[in-house]
Design a protein that fits this description.
Pathway: Cofactor biosynthesis; thiamine diphosphate biosynthesis; thiamine phosphate from 4-amino-2-methyl-5-diphosphomethylpyrimidine and 4-methyl-5-(2-phosphoethyl)-thiazole: step 1/1. Keywords: Magnesium, Metal-binding, Thiamine biosynthesis, Transferase. Its EC number is 2.5.1.3. InterPro entries: Aldolase_TIM, ThiamineP_synth_sf, ThiamineP_synth_TenI, TMP_synthase. About 40% of the residues lie in helices and about 15% in strands. It has ten helices and eight strands. An eight-stranded parallel β-barrel has the order 1-2-3-4-5-6-7-8, surrounded by six helices. Helix 2 packs parallel to helix 3 and helix 2 runs parallel beside helix 10. The longest helix is centred in the N-terminal third of the chain and has 18 residues. Bound molecules: ligand 3NM. The site of ligand 3NM has 17 residues, from helix 9.
Length: about 220
Amino acid sequence: MIRKWDEAQLREALRLYLVMGSPNCNGADPYAVLEAAIYGGVTMFQLREKGPGALQGPERLALGSRLRRLCAQRGIPFIVNDDERLALELEADGIHIGQEDEAAAAVRKRLPQMIVGVSAHDLGEAQSALSDGADYLGVGPQYATRTKLDAREVQGPAGIALLRAGGIALPLVGIGGIDASNASHVIRAGADGVAVVSAIAAASSPREAAAELRERIVNL
Ligand code: 3NM
């Protein structure tokens, strides 16, 4: 199977990963937020249209196709959170699934061409994701977050160091409460990059917020 993104490209793309849906944008147009964030230096995008006020049905599809097109134009991977049908409809580059979602192995099998990301919270979950064929892991929450109401207990970057020490070499990002003040700790613990929602999507200038984050993680 020829995949569009090999592992080295994926590691690079994970550097600054924006995860977002319309409820995270403080009323701003998600297209404008994503466009600005890409100018600022975001290298990968996940559509996570979840929570109160999330778009459904045709509106969700319409937003998804606009954002999908923007990512294609800018050459960054477009990932869909937890919705296989939407990922296929949008011809996404990948899908991200949580521990509560369908088993990663089944998704991997049905979507051999896609990047498959899995949320993992400890070594056991990371090992299962690896044997299920995950391409990358999201590990969190690194710090306290108000974006995901059912987030697990804060584990801090030490959780990432434990995965690396336990032999997990897969590309991975930290997620949860990450901003320019703490991103470097996450990278130093062994992450390839950081995944953020509010630090960029809810910023008064998503472009500047992305640029500041990028500056902190690139110049390490
Ligand atoms: N997943 P913010 S924390 C989507 O721990 C998500 O797996 C998490 O939002 C996990 O950057 C989280 O605004 C929300 O804190 C991250």
